[in-house]
Amino acid sequence: YGEAGAVTTNNAELAEKIAMLRDHGQTKKYYHQWIGWNGRMDGILGGGFSVLKSEPYRVRVSPDREIEVMTMVTEKGSLRMLGSYFFLQKGRVITSPWMNKFYLILDGILKQRTDGALVRAEMTVAPSQSMEDAYSELEEFIAKLWPILPDYVPN
């Protein structure tokens, strides 16, 4: 789960904007012209959990809409957890951290906006609970969460 990324351009103005976004929107230390970021995905693991499985999963959030979320089954001793995440950004549902960063950069340059959210849901899987039941419970929770997300995440 290493992190890396690169952007290349022959446009000096664009290169400066990209560098500023990467460095918290600053050109010199503690002088912020924009709100930038430097987020890390490895914070999702932490605490000594091992990843047993990580894969995309389709969730029906309304009668006529499905979204894709990333799911992760983790384990630490006898404790199993099922987690999911997706990025919600201006109506886009994104599961790739790299595509999320791409759109943040693009929207930052074109729209001067880098708002959005990482939506994460995690649950403990009971020892007697099947993974199929756990996925169903997670899907039900995300479907109930979906209609209220626009109240908290700008579009």
Concise synopsis of the structure shown:
With 155 residues, the protein is of the alpha+beta class. It has helices at residues 12-22, 97-111, 131-145, and strands spanning 26-28, 31-32, 50-62, 65-76, 79-89, 92-94, 117-125. The strands form 2 sheets. Strands 3, 4, 5, 6 and 7 form a 5-stranded antiparallel sheet that branches. A two-stranded antiparallel sheet has the order 1-2.
Question: What is the topology?
Answer:
Blueprint: H1 12-22, E1 26-28, E2 31-32, E3 50-62, E4 65-76, E5 79-89, E6 92-94, H2 97-111, E7 117-125, H3 131-145
Antiparallel strand pairs: 1-2, 3-4, 4-5, 5-6, 5-7
Can you walk through the features of this model?
With 155 residues, this protein is an alpha+beta fold. Helix content is 26%, strand content 34%. The chain has helices at 12-22, 97-111, 131-145; strands at residues 26-28, 31-32, 50-62, 65-76, 79-89, 92-94, 117-125. The strands form two sheets. Strands 3, 4, 5, 6 and 7 form a five-stranded antiparallel beta sheet that branches. It has a two-stranded antiparallel sheet with strand order 1-2. The protein is elongated. The model has no long low-confidence stretch (mean pLDDT 82).
* Overall pLDDT metric: 82
Rg measurement, Å: 18 Å
Secondary-structure-based class equals alpha+beta
What general form does the structure show? elongated
Distance between the termini: 30 Å
